[in-house]
Amino acid sequence: MTLLPRLQRGWTTAIGDRPGSFSISLYALDGSIAELNAGAHHYAASTIKVAVLAALLRARATGLLAWDDTSEVHARFTGVVGDRFDLAAEDDQDPATWASLGSPVAWSVLAERMITVSSNIATDLIVERIGITAVQDFLVEADLAADLQFQRLIGDTAAQRAGHTNTVTADGLARLLVGLATDRWLPTSDSSTAVEILSRQEYRDGIGAGLPSGTWLASKSGWVPGVRHDVALVRPPSAAPYALAICTTSPVPDAEAVALIAELSRITYQEWCA
Q1: In the chain, which ranges are continuous DSSP H helix?
Q2: In CATH, which of 3.30.70.1150, 2.60.40.60, 3.40.710.10, 3.30.540.10 is domain 43-168?
Q3: pLDDT in tens, 188-219
Q4: What CATH homologous superfamily does 1-40+169-274 map to?
Q5: pTM, to two decimals
């Protein structure tokens, strides 16, 4: 039995009869290997922050901003339908940036926190600086706009009520990481910066938990009630690297969704390295 049917059989067995939508996309750095419902759209949660990181690095590469330039930290933003809204520290997981309200923080630091601790306030500060259209333009140029849609800031509930949302597919997330790993859209130094930041991810309870201890990965997870995703670039010590994206939209408890992602990752790694 070849890799593709073995993987799909293993994935399907692991998912079982759980209710909801489950999507998986596996890529080698030179192309797609296997997928399961990989084109289904899911609410993005924080996985869309990888696209924001790429757009920020594109802005750096074109001279729009310098990495050590700063932004004064604030929590009030203008939404896409014109309403002002405030983020709340209790809905975020970045106490360091929230402790800097009113003070300047470098873009390099905000980028790090947006990814490694999934900071919402850092994300909105970055998007405020480069513009939502910069993220959208990057996705169009990368041929990812059909799979990754970024239409509003984090916490912009008025825009969400008006129908503006952020969505992803597992296929789009996996292709985004492959492109960053292979310098497809950014200069090598900027692609390397993106991958290095992703490799310092602090939330590793999804794909990372399914890998043998010490396995290198660069990843970004995302979660809201009923949604749990993870996407990672994995470099096994004795096999070729791969990108894996897993998206789950399901009423199962969050801990169960996290454990499922870890199990799907374990199956993938085992088959990949066999």
Answers
A1: 3-15, 49-61, 95-98, 107-116, 120-130, 132-141, 157-161, 170-181, 188-199, 254-273
A2: 3.40.710.10
A3: 999 999 999 999 999 999 999 999 999 999 99
A4: DD-peptidase/beta-lactamase superfamily (3.40.710.10)
A5: 0.97
